[in-house]
Amino acid sequence: MATIGMNDLKTGLTILYNQSIWRVLEFQHVKPGKGAAFVRSKLKNLRTGAVNEVTFRPGDKFETASIEQTDMQYLYADGDQHVFMDNETYDQVSIPADKISDALKFLLENMTVKITTYEGEILDVELPKTVELTVKETQPGIKGATANGGGKPATLETRLVITVPDFVNEGDKLVVNTDNGGSYTSRA
User: Fold this and answer.
1) Among 70, 86, 120, 170, which residue carries the largest CB count within 10 Å?
2) In what residue span(s) does the Translation elongation factor P/YeiP central domain sit (predicted)?
3) Taking a C-beta distance cutoff of 8 angstroms, is the pair 65, 1 a contact?
């Protein structure tokens, strides 16, 4: 692991700071008219998911964290555990539901995701930007409705509830954006 200072920060870098693992989401070098320069940053704790704003001063030093990302296939749920298989080695790992609760809203069997680890500790499940999910329950579609209408709730096959346009019917396959907690993008 390399030791770096505030001037080496960049978006996406993973560092060890305050006895935890953080990913740099944003940073801004600030040079006030009076006093020393500093860096304002937004960091995400990869263990807890918390996002904090942190200010670094010129003398601050921290180590980079060497994290690994592995393509893995979601296999099945076994009680409170969810089983994933490494696509290259076929090794399987079980992850508790509470550690990946946000990802479970989008996961289907056989879906490939990226598992982020640090020294063998599973930190995160990274989903594709969009997934295709089938509508299991919604009100009947309205003929002639457009995507600009008010929308209606729809329950998808993963039990995720999103707002969809009025023309969507049960059984339709939808493209859902995973970045913002799940939003309708289009029909598949």
Assistant:
1) 70
2) 69-123
3) yes
